[in-house]
Amino acid sequence: MNNVDFVIKLGGSAITDKKSPLTANIKVIENIAFELSSIKKLPSIIIVYGGGSFGHFIANKYIHNGKIISSIGVAEIHSAMLTLTEIITSYFIKYKLPVFPINSSSSFILSNGELNSFIKPIEYSLNNNLIPIIGGDVILSEKDVRILSGDKIASFLAKEFNAKTLAFGTDVDGIILDNKILHKVRLSEIENIIPKIKVNQIDVTGGMVNKLLEIKNYIASGGRKAIIFNITRFGMLTKLLLGEENIGTEVDKD
Ligand SMILES: Nc1ncnc2c1ncn2[C@@H]1O[C@H](COP(=O)(O)OP(=O)(O)OP(=O)(O)O)[C@@H](O)[C@H]1O
Ligand SMILES: [Mg+2]
After folding, report:
1. What is the Cα–Cα distance from 55 to 207, expressed in whole angstroms?
2. pLDDT tens, per residue, the chain with 254 residues
3. Whose CA is nearest to atom 6 of ligand 1?
4. Which atom of ligand 1 is nearest to the CA of 228?
5. What is the rounded radius of gyration, in angstroms, for the C-alpha atoms of the chain?
6. CATH code: domain of residue 142
7. Sign of CA dihedral 126, 133, 187, 65
8. How many distinct structural domains can be found in the chain?
9. Binding site membership of 48 for ligand 1 (Cβ less than 6 Å)
10. Does residue 150 sit within a domain?
């Protein structure tokens, strides 16, 4: 498996309007595409995206105890994510970025509660100078259907491809406590931060709390640094890719 420099998650909070069903934030998507296309020598990247107002709104209607309770619900969520995929892809292509969308519902299944993956297409995309992009979606298990979050896919792929940086682009400047951004967080501090984070009911994948839990597992199991940053601020993505420091909240091992 080849290594990558970055796994970047385009948060649904940034690329969509989470207050309005099925609404993409075109300005942010276009700015991201523009920034990526403006970097002379783009590092190796895998792009992951979250469901935002395409995933969470519909999923919310159909989820019970983590399972999707209606077949038409599964179809609707999957279809909405395909629409979001197409929107992102079309803007990336507008800026001549050779993106290659990969369907997570066909790359991941749950078998006996374990995540099984077929990620060769991601490896081969990288080998062929394509930018693989993959989003949160519904995934199948033996007898039910669940949601696989973009956060989970991002940390999973960062691990598999030994990413130097796992970056979560969101609509906030990082983890904010007492109106201040936490610039550096150590693994052992995450437990104390989690109870102070607001829970968002609309979010079927656990919002910022689950993002932090995901990061905690990632770093604890040997992942390198993770960053939460504001990708809606024009220029931040470029700073991240050029290796600048202090662009949000950085989480490292102890
Ligand atoms: N203490 C906090 N610091 C920063 N953000 C917080 C905090 N508490 C709650 N949040 C919320 O967490 C949100 C980011 O998590 P959320 O899951 O909504 O975004 P996302 O992962 O980008 O979206 P998606 O899950 O659709 O991909 C922010 O928009 C913010 O409102
Ligand atoms: Mg989220």
Report:
1. 13
2. 789 999 999 999 999 999 999 999 999 999 999 999 999 999 999 999 999 999 988 999 999 888 899 999 999 999 999 999 999 999 999 999 999 999 999 999 999 999 999 999 999 999 999 999 999 999 999 999 999 999 999 999 999 999 999 999 999 999 999 999 999 999 999 999 999 998 776 778 889 999 999 999 999 999 999 999 999 999 999 999 999 999 999 999 99
3. 208
4. 4
5. 17
6. 3.40.1160.10
7. negative
8. 1
9. no
10. yes
